[in-house]
Structure formats: structure tokens, C-alpha cells
Amino acid sequence: MPMANLLKSERILQEMRNLFLTFCLVAATTAAISLIIFKIGLTRGSVVYLIPVLIAALRWGLLSALFAAVLGVVASAFFFFEPLYSFEIHDPQEVINLILYIVTAIVVSQLATRLRGELEVSRRREIDLRDLYAFSRRLAVAFDVSDIHAAIEDHLTAVLQRKVLLFGSGRKPSTAVPAPVLDEVAEVTAGRHPAGQGVTVHEDGGAFWLVRAVSPKSPEFGVIAVNLGLQSQQAVDELRARVDTVLSDATATLERLGVAHAISEARMRAQTDQLREALIGSVSHELRTPLASILGAATVLSAAPALQNEKKLKALVHDVRDEAERLNNDIQNLLDATRISSDGVKPHIEWADPADIIDSALERCRHRLLGRHVSLNLPPDLPLIHVDPVLVQQALVQIFDNAVKYSPAGTQISVAARARDGRIVLSVSDQGDGLTSAEQLLMWDRFARGNRHLSTTSGSGLGLWIASAFIAANGGKIHAVSDGPGLGTTLAIEIPVTQAAVTQMENDTDE
Questions:
Q1: In which order are the strands placed within the sheet that holds 208-213?
Q2: For 372-390, what is each residue's pLDDT tens digit?
Q3: CA 198/CA 351 separation, integer angstroms
Q4: Confidence (pTM)
Q5: Angle CA(201)–CA(206)–CA(207) in degrees, nearest 5?
Q6: Continuous H helices in 217-353
Q7: To bridge 65 with a disulfide, which of 57, 129, 173, 257 should be the other Cys (CB 3.0-4.6 Å)?
Q8: Among 277, 274, 371, 286, CA closest to 327
Q9: Which strand (E) or helix (H) includes residue 51?
């Protein structure tokens, strides 16, 4: 292949450069020895040629070290053994010295080359351990599957110093990938290649790609594609071995941290959430469409003149309307719970009058509040609040509904509002069943219901949890106060008043 010939030529040029540098090093050593002999009068200096042998072995490898040894023998024989400037050696002792030098130089070059390799391995291992430590720290703070996959991809890219793309759980790389590589990724993902064995792909541009699973034991980690670049077959094999080593360390870290289990659980939760949202959305739509017709028909019937003197029929119509409204509220609670659990609550903030919010919430609960005495205590100078009025209204509706459920007919429900310490406090007090200490601790949990009311009062246990989430989304908080069972309950909503509202009130007062 032309690319293989090019890479081979580059390696030959590199080796020739190393040999030339080795020759210069031996020449400099010869000049230094000659100067020492001339100045000091030493008669032997061939042992000094072990220095360039050692340097060449550590910097340029075994071939350069052996070349330095040969040059040292030639220079010693020519410059320092009698007869000078000749390759003839008459003294047998000098021949023995040269032979010993050759043996020593070869041994030194071998040991120095091995030391160089071990130093390189140690340095690389130190870098790998440092990268593994950083990898572990990043995994520890990963929030979801995409964060884990991004951490794996970035770690492999940093360690291999090659472009690494990770495919898994629908994850697509941000950069373009050659079509042959994508095809091979699909094959590996489908399990059509032996686990743990990578496949080398040669793209049209000449570069090699390695495609393999991150871990043969855990398919949750995904499949990687490593751009090996323009390399010879020998270099490709070396890089593949390097990838195997790095992946072995990385998967050991992933398995030690239980990442595969976490990914499986996260994927299961995501699928469960999607199924739940689809189910609730479908059911609520199918229920609310006929329910709207039932509510409309029941409302018209309840006002029909023909039923005004028919007490039994009128009571039945009212029961149909009340139960339809209750079912409609339960469906709305399910939708609100799904909204809170999946996407979170995103309020649409605007300026609102607390009195208007309370009035609209009371109007929505007008039918449910029949039979209760509702008292209002709303000062006329309440400041505006910067909230989502719809969410606050829905929270109040849940609180009114809770007060109606747990207080007998004919009792009073008090609604009050006041400004205090930079906050607006909206309170709803009833004369109902009250709360025990255990119920006060659990009443804000999802699906929480008191044991005292399981058989007497219907409900899903979502109302106060939804109210608390809606108020928290507006920067407020909600709490309950009760003197005990049978002594009634007060639910209070606290919403901060921004400085802008205070300034606006002061300006209005000045005018």
C-alpha cells in the first residue's frame, strides 16, 4: 500500500537521523578523549566510549546503541592503539581489551534499552493512574447516563491521545463519522462479533478505526470507535494492545463503582417514566372528554325548572355533578403529579394581587364549599407578589379541598392574608379532625394519608404534596399547625415579597 510505504520511509528517515546523531556524539567523545590524552598524558581512553553507548540507548534505542559501540571500537583502534591512525593491532592485550569493550558495550546497550522501556512504561502507568483517579471522581458526580457516557469518552480520549467516539443508549457523537465505521458499530452493538475483540475498519481517506465494545461483560457501557490515524499494520497492532489495556483499567473502575447497574436502573426508570406519562396522558384524555359532557349535562339538569320540585331527582343530579367534579379533580391531580415528577414545575412569573388569587380559588371551589361557613380576612393594602398566579391558585384549591374533606358540614373555614417581615402569609383554618404529630410529619409526602381516615374519607394523598411543590416553585413554603386531633388545622402559605413590590407600594403611598 502507498500509505504503508510512506510510513516505512518515515521510520527509515527517523532511524537515519538517530544514527547521524549517534555518529556526532561518538565524534565529540573522540575529540574529548584526544584532548584529555594530550593535556594529561593518559594512554588509554576507550572505556569512555561506554558513555555515548549509554546515551544512545536511553534516547534513541538499541540500534543506535549498537552503532555507537561499533564506532567506539573503530575509533579506539584507529586513534588510541599502536600503531596510531591504523586499524592494525599488534599487541594481543589490546585485542582482548577491545573484545571486552565490545561485550561490555553490548550488555550496557541492552540494559540501558530495557531501562528506557521500563521508564516509559512507568511514566505511562503513572499518567494512566492519574487519569483513572480523575475518571473515578467524574463518575462519582455523574447525574445521569449521558454524563457517564461522556466521562467514559473523555477519559479514553485523554489516555489514548486519539479521537474516541462512544455509542450507547441512543447516544450519537457530535462529529461526523464515516459510513463504514457506523456500519461496524451497528454490527458490534448487535453482538455479531466476539465479545472483547475489536474490528479494524479502513476508511476511504486511508485512516484506520478500531471498533469494539467497551466491556465484553457489560453492554450498558456502549461501543467505542477509536481513530487510529494513518499507521502501519505494526503500529495499528500496538495501538490495539494499548486500547485493550486502557479499557481493562477503565472497565475495572466502572465495575468497582457499580456503574453498569446504575446505567441499567437509570434506563429502566426512564422507560418507566415514559410509559407512565404516556399511560396517564392517554387515560386522562379519554376520561376528561366524556367527563366534561357529564359535568355540563349535570349542571344544566340541576338548574332545570322541571326538577326544582323533584327532590329525589334533584339530589341524584347533584350527586352526579359532585362525583364528576371529584373525578375531574383526581384526574387533574394525576396530571399535576406527572408534571412535577418528570419535567419539574416551571412557573410563569408575573405580578399578581393575593386577593384576586384567593377569590379565583374560592370560585373554583364554590360547589365544594357549600355547607361550610367561609370567612374572609383580607386587608385592602396587601402588596403585590411576583409569582405564577395559576400555581398559587391551584395550591389554594388543594388546601380548600383538604379543609372540606376533614371538617364536618356547618363548621367554619377561615381564610386570611397578611403581610409580615417581607412575606405574604395566606392561611386557611378549619374546625375539623386536626392532626396528630405523626400525621404532621408525613402529610407532605406523596400518597400520604392518615390511618384515621382511610375507611371514611376518599382521596389519593396527592393534594398537599402537589400544593407544596407548586408553592416551592414560586420560592415560598407551606406549613401546618394543629393543636391535636379534633381541634382543627391551619395551613399557611408564605411567599416572599420582592423589594420591587415594596418600592412600588411606597411610591403609590407617596402619590
A1: 163-167, 223-229, 208-213, 199-202
A2: 899 999 998 889 999 999 8
A3: 61
A4: 0.46
A5: 55
A6: 233-256, 259-302, 311-342
A7: 57
A8: 286
A9: helix 50-60
